[in-house]
Amino acid sequence: MQWVLNAIIRYKNFLLFLFLFNLGLFISGTQSSYHNSQIAKSSLVISGFIHQPFRQLNSYFDLADENKRLVEENNALKNRELVRSYQTGVLPRRNRNSGSSQYWSKSAKIIRNSFTQSRNILLIDKGSNDSIDREMGVIGPKGIIGIVNQTSGNYASVLSILYRDLKINAKFIKSNVFGSLFWQGDNPNEMQLSDIVSINVVEIGDTLVTGGMSSYFPEGIPIGKVKSFELLENGGYYDISVSLFNNMTDLEYVYVIGNKDRGEIIELLEREP
Amino acid sequence: MIPYYTRFSLLAFILLILQILVFDNIHLFGFSNPAIYIFIFITYRLDLDQFGFIAIGFFTGLFLDLVTQSPGAHSIAGVSIAFLRSIISRFALGANFNQPNALSTGSLWSNKMVYIFLMILTHQLIFSFILYFNMAHLWVIIKHTVANTFFSFVLITASLTLFQTKK
To answer: Residue B140 and residue B138: Cα distance in Å, rounded?
Structure first.
């Protein structure tokens, strides 16, 4: 028995290292599970508490630029309702759905933005007190930003579209062809579009908008333009690079999009056949 | 004289706040974040018990993880660098590896530089690797590691020479 104790005392540094290392791995490993969301919730409170005052101070320096941008944006939105404006502006007449008032929007300010990691998360200053809930879509002045991941009373974290495991349903305006859009983790202005079959015609400069296949975003929110494309050797699919309309690196104000019918849609999906 | 641990905690706290509020917002070339807080691991006295140091490494990293919402990368890098420091210091500082004054007067300038460089490189390599967690992104990992190591090295050596002028 003695030698076991001796060994433990002798290698205590290594054992502690192993224990804490695994604890760290456990924290990373549970990234999408229940435990992680609990950790994320409490860390969100700390994180928001620390970043909020600094961001407020910081935003004073950008006031002039920000004002100019707000005026620009206000101008564009002046006579139109936000979501509706995207659809009437972008989609051809046959695609407009008449019941778009099922969506409401709420403006929020970004207090922390990251774009250098492989899984980027934004923090915004509105939370469950402002009736913001998980899995709501977030859009910016020029197009989509991400999806709400976690909320506390006054803050919410948003999975940026620059998040490696996130796939977004997107379609071409001109042909209505659907594909899924994802980020490769490198350039913050560029994403990849996959699942487009080669019988479709793709040209550089084609505009992509959100498809209506998910309940996060209304149909027709702008995403970006085709930057380059190539036909994959082994199959009948295109590999398409898309440059985003939004500059993800200098965002300040965003809009959270809520879907009034979302509860109904989810209930329908979860109902047993 | 203020006790060592009080001074150390104060320094660590200031560095962490600086890291979160200032250096995490610096994006050199659009992707590189200098990691100034490795200063904590470099300057922690070399003669003190490693057991406590490993715990300090972990909790420093955990704090950063919680604040920056990163998935455990800071904790793992912190605990690894705390564990590997005895090996790195033995390699770089030679006979001085456990002297309390090894970083101020005790060693050759070149030895100190090698020690600091290896500490930052190891930390950043582990950090980037955990962050991406996929060999398919090896090129991005290397790019981030090299750029971050370079800028952190410049910043940390500069601050080290600034704060250690008194003999």
So the answer is: 6
> Which tokens sit at A114?
């990251």
For A175-216, write each residue's pLDDT tens digit: 888 888 888 877 888 888 888 888 888 888 888 888 877 767
Residues 6+ apart with CB under 8 A from B127: B35, B73, B74, B76, B77
* Secondary structure (3-state) at A249: coil
Q: Closest residue of A to B81, CA-based?
A: A17
Shared domain check, A157 and A54: yes
Q: Could you tell me which residues of chain A have a Cβ less than 8 Å from any Cβ in chain B?
A: 12-14, 16-17, 20-21, 23-28, 31, 39-40, 42-44, 46-47, 50-51, 54, 114-119, 121, 123, 157, 185-186, 188, 249
Q: Which of A13, A20, A22 to mutate to test the interface with B (most CBs of B within 10 A)?
A: A20
Same domain, A194 and A146: no
Which of A115, A121, A185 is opposite residue B140, by nearest beta carbon? A185
User: Nearest residue of A to residue B16 by CA position?
Assistant: A50
**Angular region, A80: left φ>0, alpha ψ -120 to 50, beta rest:** beta
Q: Report ipTM (2 d.p.).
A: 0.71
Q: Domain tally for chain A?
A: 2
Domain carrying residue A231: 168-244
pLDDT digits (tens, 9 = 90+) for B42-66: 888 888 888 888 999 999 998 888 8
In this structure, are residues A82 and A255 in contact, taking their beta carbons and an 8 Å threshold?
Answer: yes
What is the DSSP pairing of strand A103-112 with strand A253-259? Answer: antiparallel
- The residue written with tokens 């290392």 in the block is A21
Same domain, yes or no, for A95 and A184?
A: no
- Residue A20 domain-assigned? no
Report pTM: 0.62
Q: Can you read off the two tokens belonging to residue B11? A: 């320094």
Residue B152's contacts (CB-CB under 8 Å, 6 or more residues apart) are B34, B35, B36, B38, B120, B124
Contact A116 B132 (CB under 8 A): no
